[in-house]
Amino acid sequence: MNPDRKTGVGMLIRGVAVLLIGAAIYLSYELGRYQSGYSILDHRRQVADFERQAAELDYTIEELRRQIAILETSREIDRATYAQVEGDLGSLQAQLQASEEELAFYRGIVSPEDGVAGLRIQNLEVRPIGPEGRHVLRLMLVQAIIHTDQVRGTAEVTMTGAIGGEPAEFGLRQLAADGATEVLAYEFRYFQNFERQMVLPAGFEPDIVEVSIRPTSPPGDPVTQRFQWSVVGSQ
User: Domain of 200: which CATH number?
Assistant: First the structure.
């Protein structure tokens, strides 16, 4: 036999022998584990069970995350809805208050509490609007109860107080800003608003604001009303 062939056959025999020995060792190892209660099939079954349980836990975790996301979204929606409802409620309350004030105003014109008909001063206020004694005077005249005719006439405003401890008195002629007239001419059936800017003299401390209404059509007696500065105005 050819020496090379002999060498090849010998190597093949040794290789087969090594495989047989390895297989015998593995079988002996598995036999030992089996005899001690270990089964590779049971092991694989356990691994499969663990994998199934892990998959179920993953699904449960994802489901819980989805529910949490839904709850958080619902909470955000509830919060936004509550804020919107709260804002709408505040707006409705403001509208209700404005309506009540408007109703009270018109009730005062149609049916005043004292039941006295005719011209009257419904509102007067003097508020600061800038430096150097600049103020705005707002006056509202109404005709209460009887509204069959237009009324015409004039209204005059006078302020009395003190400068440096000495008595002082000023009409709109002396106080009016920007060349406004000192007399307020009115003509209305239900009510009329006036607004005039004034500049109070330096050092002037008002005490009384007097408004005199002088009707011309229909003719009638003057209506004069005095207001405390602490009530209708401020420095």
Answer: 2.60.40.10
**Distances 13 to 5, 16, 19, 23, 26 between C-alpha atoms, Å:** 12, 5, 10, 15, 20
Residue 50 within a domain? no
Q: Left, alpha or beta for 164 (phi > 0: left; psi -120 to 50: alpha)? A: left
* Residue 30 placed within a domain: no
DSSP 233: B
DSSP state of 221: -
Contact 155, 177 (CB under 8 A): no
Which pLDDT tens digit goes with each residue over 135-184?
Answer: 999 999 988 877 778 899 999 999 999 999 899 999 888 888 766 666 78
| Residue where the block lists tokens 């804002």 | 87
Q: 67-106, pLDDT tens digit by residue?
A: 888 888 888 887 777 778 777 777 877 777 877 777 676 6
Which domain, by its residues, includes 155?
118-232
- 112-125 burial string, b = 16+ CB within 10 Å, else e? beeeeebbbbbebb
Backbone phi, psi, residue 48, to 5°? -65, -40
For residue 199, the SS3 value is strand
Name the domain count of the chain: 1
Residue 65 domain-assigned (yes or no): no
> What percent of the chain lies above the pLDDT cut of 90?
23
